[in-house]
Design a protein that fits this description.
Elements: E1 4-11, E2 31-35, E3 38-45, H1 47-50, H2 52-58, H3 62-80, E4 86-87, E5 93-94, H4 97-106, H5 108-118, E6 121-130, H6 147-182, E7 185-188, H7 194-197, E8 202-212, H8 216-226, E9 233-241
Length: 252
């Protein structure tokens, strides 16, 4: 099959083959391209969609982008089960195998150094959401008998909101400190935009943690023990992922 080379990740040589039915971006099965002790996992993609100009247009097409990102992530997930991949950005494309090898050679030291640091480690994501309204605010407020009563009710509601957010911030800060102490490294990401994530509540913690694969079960148990600790807090754990947040410039 002819076409451009789409690169998913860089890793060390691995002996376990990927699933035979695995399909990559544009439906082409991924393959390993080895150069100087590094492996680039690549597949063929059509020039009509992945040359510079059409790719730029496609990246503004949400449906196309979603489908491509899903296929990209599927290959990364498959790699994570057999090795420690260093994911590259979505849409990393080269003209041919020679171009991929040139990239590997130019960045060999950086790739080797990062792979040394990530070897045998995975990323876990933890998000904490606080209810957008305190429970007592969900109850119908009594009709104010006067303007003074109305102002008193408003001040009480404001205090209730402030106390709730303070508790949420304190809870998430303490949780992040606990998880960071267990993990080898951590990253705080900006809170998610609810309009994009469709998640309910206010995102007060959005963090990633680098954990040795062998210690992942303990990390999951640590997170699980905090669930239900503070009413109104919802904790979401995702992973294990390839270490996107800790892969430096190469990461998505």
């Amino acid at each position: 099959m002819t076409g451009l080379r789409y690169v998913y990740a860089v890793c060390r040589p691995f002996g376990t083959p990927l699933q035979s039915q695995l399909k990559g971006v544009a439906g082409d099965p991924p393959r390993a391209l080895t150069h100087h002790g590094l492996v680039a996992v690549v597949s063929h993609v059509p020039e009509r969609d992945f040359a510079e100009e059409p790719l730029h247009r496609h990246l503004e097409d949400l449906d196309w982008l979603t489908e491509t990102a899903r296929a990209h992530q599927g290959v990364i997930d498959a790699l994570t089960t057999v090795t420690t991949p260093l994911p590259l950005r979505l849409g990393t494309v080269f003209r041919d195998d020679s171009g991929v090898r040139t990239m590997l050679e130019a960045r060999e030291e950086d790739f080797q150094r990062t792979l040394d640091r990530l070897e045998g480690r995975v990323e876990w994501g933890v998000k904490v959401y606080a209810e957008s309204e305190p429970k007592e605010a969900a109850q119908p407020a009594q009709k104010a008998a006067s303007g003074r009563d109305y102002l008193r009710q408003r001040r009480a509601q404001t205090r209730s909101h402030e106390e709730m957010w303070q508790k949420a911030e304190s809870f998430s800060t303490h949780l992040h400190e606990q998880l960071s102490a267990f993990a080898e490294d951590s990253r705080l990401h900006p809170p998610q935009n609810p309009a994009l994530s469709k998640a309910t509540g206010r995102n007060v913690l959005n963090a990633a943690y680098l954990v040795p694969r062998a210690h992942s079960e303990e990390f999951v148990e640590l997170v699980d023990r905090t669930k239900g600790e503070l009413p109104g807090m919802r904790i979401e754990l995702t992973g294990p992922w390839a270490a996107y947040s800790f892969a430096g410039e190469a990461a998505t």
